[in-house]
Amino acid sequence: MSFLRLLARNRLALAGLVVMAAVVVLALITPLLPLADPDVTNTADRFERPFGAAGLLGTDHLGRDLLSRLLHGTRLSLAVGFAAALIAATIGAAIGIVAGYYGGRIDNVIMRGVDMLMAFPYILLALAIVAALGPGLMNALIAVAAVNIPFFARNIRGVTVSIANREFVDAARLSGMGDARIILTEVLPNVIPVIVIAMSTTVGWMILETAGLSFLGLGSQPPQADLGSMLGEARSALISNPHTSIVPGAMILVIVMAINLLGDGVRDALDPRLKSGALSRPMPTTLVRRETPPPAPAADDAVLEIAGLKTEFHVRDRVYRAVGGVDLSLKPGECLGIIGESGSGKSVTALSVMGLVASPPGVITGGRVQFDGQDLIGAPYEVLRRMRGDRVAYIFQDPLSTLHPLYTVGAQLVEAVRAHHPTPRAEARAHAIELLRAVRIPNAESRIDSYPHELSGGMRQRVGIAMALANDPEVIIADEPTTALDVTVQAQILSLLDDLRRERGLAIVFITHDFGVVAQLCDRVAVMYAGRIVEAGPAAAILTAPAHPYTARLMACVPELGGGRRHLAAIPGLPPAVDRLPAGCAFAERCDKAQAACRQGDIPLVAHGPGRSVRCIAPEPAPEPAPDTVTEAAE
Amino acid sequence: MTPALKLTGLAKSFPVGKRLFGPPRAVVRAVQPVTLTVERGETLGIVGESGCGKSTLARMLVGLLEPSEGRIEIEGAPLDTADPAAFGRKIQYVFQDPVSSLNPRKTIRQIMEAPRRHLHGLGRAARAARIAEIFAAVNLREDFLDRYPHEFSGGQAQRIGIARALAADARILILDEPVSALDVSVQAQVLNLLADLKAEFGLTYLFISHDLAVVEAVSDRVAVLYFGAVVEVGPADRVFARPRHPYTRLLAESAPVVGRALTAPEAPETELPDPLNPPSGCAFRARCPRATAECGTVPPPLERQEDGVWLACYNPLPPTPPAEA
Question: What CATH number is given for A281-379 in this structure?
């Protein structure tokens, strides 16, 4: 089972599991063991030392056999602890699910009640409950369960709220299910892992709390033994006969340690956030492990040159070849579009330039990124850090997640400037206002003190662009900067980017999946499929006469405004998974022109007409060079 | 023939700043009173930008949200919101995010059986036969039924979502951005599948999207929503080719199209209206180049024009002859 395997990877959790299993087995078989009666007193043999004549662990102040009392006590403490945890989890989860699912006033009333319960110190609350019900192990159990209900209720409510708003709950409702059925069959199965995690981390506490109440004489009553009452009775002889305290104390320590280690392991194995590695911190730069020496730099006027770039993701025993040998070059003032579907490697290519691919699992296994006379692949962190945002800046898709919600946009712009160029704060602020004006934010002097959530999506993306411009970079890499925006806002942002690059001579790498955007903004375009460039060249030429079948088919399946109602020319099938790339052309599977030769060997990117190249053995014929027919779309 | 779907003055307001007791601090009108009809067998496209109320409208139609005012008639019968299951047999919903609309802890078979069991009370054998039929219709293999949602790509998951909607045997489908989470090559597959299913089962679609080109490609008629109100309704081949409402024209001119020069259709300082503080009169007034004093008085009513188009505008663009397009 994968859960056990995940758990076993955590050595400490495995140790906890083994110890806990041993203790539970011992507790279970205690009545079958040839032990002395735990409650029979024999005052003549009181305080016998361990390993003596009177049993393995000696005797207590009434001459009762300590080993027998320890095992019976452990049995009782475990039973009470687990029962309390189960009761608290069941009632707490039920309260949490009802509050989270129904929401509104029901949620408000329930959760305020829970808050009131939490306002008491828990031990005081437990004492009050036991005082009201009278001492006794059963009442201690009720008290411990009751004080832990709020913890479960709050935890489960939070999870339920997020699940109750998921679309599959709406879908269940539309399938004719009632509330009770939705709670039981849709919500509960998704909440159970959280309940288990919460239980595994609190069972130890509950055993301790029960022991605490018994220690105070409010739990198990003499002569019945549990670990807490054993400690309490041994207290008076702590100095003279320490073994009577040490024996139950050590058992409590062992049990609670084992449960907590196991609980941490269970949480790590079940929590999807931990499983996805979201909490593992990536290294400051992408790991580089080049298997072949990087190609020599081509001596031309390119500001940024990518040659043979290979980036892979190593996840356990699988290797995902996200970028499989990409060559690109960007001239000053040029806008290069990279177009492709999700998983084609366009974003990973862009992130590899500045070593921003998260490692682990990302590894750059080959190629060269030539910028400013040096190879950035494998460059020291300090070199990359100084260039990031200063010489090469990024604009990302979602400005809400790239801007820090707790700082004003002005503070973030000032920080972006001062990280690279130590300037007085007032000067940096003036520069920030200038930047906001440059991205056409109206009323920049007052907007600079706004928080990101106070701005609309379009305005936030303008701030993102202003931040990229902050240090006058040579290259801007824009990764789907308008995908999250509405069309009218997209048009504004695109025309802003176009104006800026002409005013400032910026070189832009523009990543998108939209041919319309490429046509309007880019000088050249590279089409990516399954981690490789399949076609590159001047945007206008490729969009009017695509040479690679993939480009042609992809363009055909995008409906274009003004075409009216029609059947679309879909591409059958799916792109190949990049951990199982076929030999030969990755598109052959879906291509209606595929031949036997397409499925073998490596198909090179070859020149195809003026400034164009294509990775296909049977491309559409290159058009005759007739410059007047190629209109500059960007003009 | 009675229309498949008739909305009369349907509106929804959300309270903002709820208090434990007493009225909320403010009310946001997500959908202004909307009156629309969808004929049987028709695809009505609804376009609008984020926050224009298109998803709120859709969720009201399937009973996931209670309308604040107005009424919904499905195939001539007014629907009360008391019984959500009654909605389920007549009208179904296809969600935007195909993966999050499938419960990760259920097999596809369990997901597909729910509408057959709870809406139609079918037995095991009858359910299995019908599910097999539906799966064949959406081009999915039957061995997918015993797998879990995470094993499917976005396009396959969306087919499963469509199959689930079909399993209710409803004749009206509300498609809320059904392809916006998909890649373009997969998007075309799903759009074509929807067109085939419509012909095969005689379905009526309400197709909601922010993508003008997609809406135009699949719809018979298109309704344009702005700030919770319908501003223009007309035949799909005409609405964007020859817009009459200034907002429709702005949308059409903003869409990036191969072969058209990049222009900013608006000045950068234009801001969307604030829902908490709605403008008087026409909500588009502040962005509109044709706005006059009249626009600031009362919101323009949606009225039928001489060329058959419904418009909510005091100063519409003149109708242009089709030859120009």
Answer: 3.40.50.300
